[in-house]
Amino acid sequence: MSAGTTKLDVVVSDVVPVNDLVTRFHFRRRDGELLPTFSGGAHVVVEMRDGERTRLNPYSLMGSPLDTREYTISVRRDDVGRGGSLFMHRSVKPGLEMVISYPVNLFSLDLRAKKHLMLAGGIGITPFMAQTAQLAGEGGNFELHYTCRTASLGTYADVLRERYGRRVRLYHDDREERIELDRMLSSQPLGTHLYVCGPAGMINWVRDRAAALGWPPETVHYEHFAAPQPGLPFDVTLAVSGKTIRVGEQQSLLEAIEAAGVDPPYLCRGGVCGQCETNVISCDGKFIHNDHWLSEEDHRSGRKIMPCVSRFEGRSLVLER
Amino acid sequence: MGITFRKETFRDDFTFRNSPEHIRRFPFPFHEDSYMYAVNIEPHVVGPKGSVLENLIDVDEHYVAEMQDRALVLAEDPLRCQSLPHMTLAGWDLLELLMEQQALGYPEHFTLTRDGDRWRWINRPLGIDDTFTFGDTSTLPYGPMEYITRQSQGDFCILDQRDGNLWMDAGMVTTQADWSLDFDIGMNFFEWHAPVPLAHEKGIFVRALKFLTNIQQGKPARRLNWTMTINPRLDTSPENYHKWGPDRTTVTPENVGDKVHLRVELQSFWRLPRSNGIVFPIRCYLIKMDELVTQPKWARRLHRVIRDLPEELANYKGLTRYRSTLVEWLSKLDDGSPTSPGFGPD
Q: Which member of B24, B162, B223, B321 is catalytic?
């Protein structure tokens, strides 16, 4: 049984430029009904019909979970990515009808926490927008530390300071302001849970320091959606469906499989949920694993691949699909 | 036209019965003439009219009597309903789900009116008409989970999802097949399934957990489970074993048809939207042998299933003491002719 999600037919109700890099998109249901309730940290997968191509990208919901009249996402423009964010910035206008998935939460709050300590880097702020709104509504105890390159690129920093005052602390790279991580992690009350969302380097740094300072792994939560990276084209044989396909430079392996009419299950499309895990039947070449799901041992074995984010370079690849 | 609710008991004089229409809609759990564990999970979608799947949350003729029996259990033992402090939000999720589903399926009996967070809930069979503020526990006579599960058939376990596992952190459990919420509260999926024989070796729980942690909002799933109970007793809990355990020694060839009941659980699994937890309703259906064998296909098939059941399973399900008496009684109704595929009666 496929683990895919139910789809929602929506219309773009507003497009708001936030700063030089980030634009916010608002969606409402086409039938005028309320959208499904969601929990802070949830994402939706947005289907982008770009001519012949369909891209499916995950974005965190950043509105308040208490208001389901509309969903909002914020998209950072990536000029060297595969084009999904550029499509959103250039082609998505108010009134456009789109399809998005039901919300899925792979970065959920641990509601046992006595305190929620949140660390955001750059566009990694978006899931915390919803989580802080949820916690504030319930009188939850949280503290948010947010690093951004410059004040003008501090997406929603002003909104967050306005809403939560001293519970939000900002750090600007251009002013050489840095999180004093060790001191912060060493001085938290018992029962604190740590959440981090941002660039890979930041996530790894925070996880490493937390582990070194004795934080139990189950109190450290992180969300790291790897965007699929472009790469050299390669050919793949799908043994179960009897098809041979070419994965284009700007296409993910999962997208190429879907374009051939084969529908593997998926949820996150970012290498974390494990749904699209695929067995390798044979290969001659090397894998470029970009996921956070498979173990290092799986990566070395050459017998599994996460087609949403990982690629292949070589002469032949046969998958059990 | 609404449901005619029966006046009946699940204890003492045991006046519980199924009407002829309810016999035909009984969720008979065997699709073939033998039984072994499987990960028999399927999407929980609406099924045929006149079946227990006509609505995703089923209300039937036993509703009022079951709710009265639940109130009696809770009065004697309040620990049948527990919710750890972090599960209140999930309780509100469950309240919303059950009110919406019951009002949708049975508008003549239940009405939900929402005006922002100001909600009005009318439950006509139980004579309830309450207005409250969604999210504000002080506006209800009980916590949200207890409030709504005192008005909903079946047991409910609310599972918190964290660390790649599910945790039994809240529940209302008064109609259980010999397990205890008070014992299992706070345990994870592997801990509370530890006593089940054979299934661990088959790797069933590892696969089942992987499936359950990926249940998505708007896409509930379900499975059937079964056991047998002597007398139509809903509360077969370990806490009350001294009341029902000895019943198993009272089965004789003369009283099999009246005393022995097939007990089927319709278990469903739903992602809760605000808390990201999972709710696991376990809805219990009972049918006595005399009622079940009015469907000749079911009589033949049940005979073959019970006769051929592996010893470990028969022990785990507590059938050992009366199994041979039951098989002997059923054998007289099995002429050896083939049974048609599928669950339903012919």
A: B223
